[in-house]
Request: fold
Amino acid sequence: MPKTILVRQSPFAGNNETALANRAALDAAGVLAINVMASPGAGKTTLILATAGELHGKLRCGVVEGDIAGDIDARAAEEAGLPAVQINTGGACHLRADMLTQAMAELPLGEIDLLFIENVGNLVCPAGVLLGEHLRVVISSTAEGHDKPLKYPRVFRDAAAVVVSKWDVAPYVDFDISVYEGYLRRLNAGVPLFRLSARTGQGMAEWGRWLEEQARMHGG
Amino acid sequence: MPKTILVRQSPFAGNNETALANRAALDAAGVLAINVMASPGAGKTTLILATAGELHGKLRCGVVEGDIAGDIDARAAEEAGLPAVQINTGGACHLRADMLTQAMAELPLGEIDLLFIENVGNLVCPAGVLLGEHLRVVISSTAEGHDKPLKYPRVFRDAAAVVVSKWDVAPYVDFDISVYEGYLRRLNAGVPLFRLSARTGQGMAEWGRWLEEQARMHGG
Reply:
């Protein structure tokens, strides 16, 4: 069973200092940390597990799963053979830096190159809160429609990469990638945009190469 | 063009008192108000517009659209012939009662039987904030997967009805209604559960009848 951390205190003050300390500890351990932000049900866990498979033999992945309740995501990650910790925020709508500190203490950082921090499913609240991550990635699924960057600008503005997931479902929903990309480019002109389907594997190789490049650039 | 309200002040204190005043004003006008809560991209606007069509000639519908940014939802409602107001929260992750007060002042309440208040797309933060609504409805789409009630318990616990939207997409995504319903029933044993597709019309008649019954029971 993966370790589940039930967060109790709420020391919001000093979050950025804690984030900086997390970042230093991650750097010292040679871990590249990615804060993954998305709506509920965008396919964060599925994509992370598929990505870990894609990177098998190249980069060693670990996972911090943030949810209000439940540990099914961390269990799924552990069943896939990944070091995983579940954080239950107990109602909080986003992770905080102190939650990541607790999670890091439970992980074998020396055996991890790439740490995916799956934030609470929420396109709003996680956007303003630093955890100590190196990169922020936003996922939105084709099923959510093409207006998400228009309606939730902040989270897209700070993204180092944007993933459109569930590309295999695109023919069955109202999704126009050119409209989506138009809204996105107004906020974040040069951000890499990946079209992925964890189900069919489409786009996974390109996404994996981008992550390898990021790890190289960060000295991983 | 629908009226767009840009919310500036943040008088969070006194929210419940404001909600009670809203409720009294809605009751005086004979309006049944429904707070619609869902993830980004669950299909709130699409479902509301399809519902207004379903109820045409039976109940007169109006819409308050809550978004962090953008007015495309209120414009779509107005194009569909509905009285509509857009609220832009300017970053806030949920509507507040004072925002509804401002929206109500812009609406012809005497010509509305059923007022849909579309909250900001977020399964977490709107759950704890009363607006003055009579009923709360949660929508989650099949594309989001069947674990949403497990992961976001609070919003499902208080729902007067739960809608599973995008039922037409269910064959193309990993969605098991029995798993979903199992999680839901642990939180909210007797809540009516509707399986809808605004695209194909499936389930819309039953959903419309439920809303008519609610309006009757509230003296509408």
Summary: Chain A has one domain: 3-8+15-217. The longest strand of chain A covers residues 32-38. Residues 3-8+15-217 of chain A form a domain with the Rossmann fold fold (CATH 3.40.50.300). The CA atoms of residues 157 and 187 of chain A lie 5 Å apart.
